[in-house]
Specification:
It is a peripheral membrane protein. GO terms for molecular function: ATP binding. InterPro entries: AAA+_ATPase, ABC_transporter-like_ATP-bd, ABC_transporter-like_CS, P-loop_NTPase, Siderophore_ABC-ATPase. It comes from Rhizobium wuzhouense. With about 270 residues, the chain is an alpha/beta fold. Helix content is about 35%, strand content about 25%. Strands 6-7-8-3-9-10 form a 6-stranded mixed beta sheet, with helices on both faces. Strands 2-1-4-5 form a 4-stranded antiparallel beta sheet. Helix 5 runs antiparallel to helix 6. It starts with a strand and ends in a 13-residue tail after the last strand.
Length: about 270
């Protein structure tokens, strides 16, 4: 469904993404992990066609997105950035309706298909009862679900999420991850997700792509990543992978070192 080949992106003189190649299957959940500045967000922006590459190409169903309009891309792909913004007084339903713009445009009225898509998006994210509630009255998890609902209203089969669990407490993180998993398994939505929490990535994703300084240094399943030694090197941490359950994914356990002497402020 979604693929890119040798995608390279620069910001000024800095090479932010170097020959990034990726192929996704329908209904797959793919995690992009790596240290800050490793190129995760740039890769997502490149896949969404929001940044023009200096090299390489992105294709949806074999068709290059460079030849598509923004509306044509939006029919197929939804992109949710790290910190989307909207007026606090906007209601959940009003926000979700914005997701139908690719179908409605500036002049056409909302028809029954649009209304059905909006209702489905809110139902899928558990927000039907909160349709008239303003964004300012939502919890962090509810607000994030509202944005995902707006992305779903596009009825795109590809969903790109940039740090969807950032700034959320653990309860809301699990809520959002559970939603992503259900969308993939129940609705066949393909998800590419940049995420910081390694163990969350290991637990929910089918495949993991590890980024370092704009390059992808690993692409595969969790068990192969656990055996590669790359996590310790790329993140510069001391730890080990452990198998909590025989059938479950590996879990990375960081070794925290106690300071030999108390940390004091310099004089």
């Amino acid at each position: 469904m979604l693929s890119c080949s040798n995608l390279s992106i620069t910001y000024g003189a800095r090479r932010a993404l170097e020959r990034f190649t990726l192929t996704l299957e329908p209904g797959e959940i793919r995690a992009l992990i790596g240290p800050n500045g490793s190129g995760k967000s740039t890769a997502l922006q490149g896949l969404a066609g929001m940044v023009k590459p200096v090299e390489g190409s992105v294709a949806i169903d074999g068709a290059p997105i460079s030849g598509m309009t923004r509306r044509q891309i939006a029919h197929r792909l939804s992109f949710l950035p790290q910190q989307p913004t909207a007026p606090d007084e906007m209601t959940v339903e009003q926000l979700v309706r914005q997701g139908r713009f690719a179908h409605v445009g500036l002049f056409r009225r909302y028809d029954q298909n649009d209304e059905d898509a909006i209702a489905w998006a809110m139902e899928s994210t558990g927000l039907s009862a909160l349709a008239e509630r303003s964004l300012s009255a939502l919890s962090g998890g509810e607000r994030q679900r509202a944005w995902i609902s707006a992305a779903l209203a596009q009825e795109a089969k590809i969903l790109l999420l940039d740090e969807p669990t950032s700034f959320l407490d653990i309860g809301y993180q699990i809520e959002v991850l559970d939603l992503v998993h259900r969308l993939s398994r129940d609705r066949g939505v393909t998800v590419v997700m940049a995420i910081h929490d390694l163990n969350q990535a290991l637990s929910i994703c089918d495949r993991i792509s590890l980024m370092e300084r704009g390059r992808m240094v690993f692409d595969g399943i969790a068990t192969d990543l656990a055996q590669s030694g790359l996590i310790e090197r790329v993140f510069r941490v001391d730890g080990q992978f452990v198998q909590i359950s025989p059938d479950g994914p590996p879990h990375f356990d960081v070794h925290l070192q106690r300071w030999a002497e108390p940390v004091t402020r310099p004089a």
